Amino acid sequence: MDFELSDDQRLFRSTTREFLAKSVPLDVVRGLAASGVGFDRAWWRQGAELGWTAPLVPERLGGGSVSAVPMADLALVAMEFGRACAPGPLITTSAVLTSLVREQNRFADLLAAVLSGETIAAWAHYEPGHGLGPAAVDTVAVPEGAGFRISGVKDRVECGDQADVLLVSARGPQGPVQVLIAADAPGVTVTPTWTLDLVRRTAKVSLVDVVVGEDAVVQRYPGETAAALETQVQVAAALTAAESTGAAEHAFDLTVRWMFDRYTFGRQLASYQALKHRAAEHKTSLEACRATAWAAANAFHGDPTRTAETVSVAKSYIGAVVPGLLQDCVQIHGGIGVTWEHDMHLYLRRVTLGRALYGTPEEHRRRLTDLLDRKVA
Question: Is residue 179 within 8 Å of 121, Cβ to Cβ?
Fold first, then answer.
């Protein structure tokens, strides 16, 4: 896999890294956690100005990427989010934007508002006790005029407690549909829920007889809804894999630095053969994580089946590997590594949540099995 970045991509990455380092250093992240606020909306608007919301939106609509592969550019941002344990609705907003771009003529104003960071959009698909599959939706969409009446419960809605609008998956008479619902609409109750990550927050959304008109129906036909859902899953999974890779790489770099700075019995930790072997194994695993994450991000301009395979390979492999790697980084730090004051647990929290969201390794392995079964058939 070619990891060479263009000059524009390197500039995009370095600009994002510098902005995150200045605006949300880890002490600010801890402060956001203590305040109960996931992220500052003014800060997110600044990020949108830097281009975080732009890659998946065509240039003629106000967006634009810095290379020919928009998801690769967005993956660079996700990796920097992982390095910084940054807050913000990067992943959930990106999933919503894929549908708004599909229906750009009908949702031009909302698309512009999300693109500018003025409006926070969240993808509400997960339901209690269910995974990511399109069939795992119990929320009901009963036809009412040209629109629907929506009832059900969504959970694990990332940034749902700060969202202005929700893209909701529901089950209509003919199959799955997706609708846009204002977070403050009558019948909507949003309840923040605890997550292991300090600032990557989720919410539970209860919908009771929420009426949406025809103008809020994004996809109403089963075929187009299934295609939109698949794209949303792939985008969210690929970006989460990239974010987890960035977090793991940075945590490992901090650990290696610690191994050279820390002395025991008059020797550097890095001089012990057993620790050298562990570091070498982790470095090898990280190279594989980086390769699969980058392959997934670059697969979006190719064959759809190949894209689905590559994304599931990345999400399943990275989700299985990096939590254990981070656990070992904590252990290598010794007693200080398990203290609240040390930063290592922030990265462990980020990758552990990343493992669970947008498809666990087990879910993505099942997706891979299904893809292989279709090929054989």
Answer: no
Beta carbons within 8 Å of 224's beta carbon, 6+ residues apart:
none
Pairing status of strand 217-219 against strand 202-212: unpaired
| Token pair of 258 as six digits | 């610690």
Between CA 77 and CA 66 the distance in angstroms is 12
Q: Which residues contact 77 (CB under 8 A, 6 or more apart)?
A: 12, 13, 16, 52, 90
Using one digit for the tens of pLDDT, what is the confidence trace for 208-220? 999 999 999 999 9
104 in helix, strand or coil?
Answer: coil
Inter-CA distances, 45 with 50, 89, 104, 279, 290, Å? 9, 11, 21, 39, 29
CA proximity to 54, closest of 42, 44, 66, 40? 66
Tens digit of each residue's pLDDT (9 = 90 or more) over 240-281: 999 999 999 999 999 999 999 988 888 888 889 999 999 999
114: number of CA atoms within 13 Å, CB side? 34
Quick one: pLDDT band at residue 376, thresholds 50, 70, 90? confident
Question: 53-56 — which CB contacts under 8 Å span 24+ positions?
Answer: 53/93, 53/94, 53/97, 53/114, 53/115, 53/116, 53/117, 54/115, 56/94, 56/97, 56/98, 56/101, 56/235
Look at 265 and 207; give whichever has higher pLDDT: 207
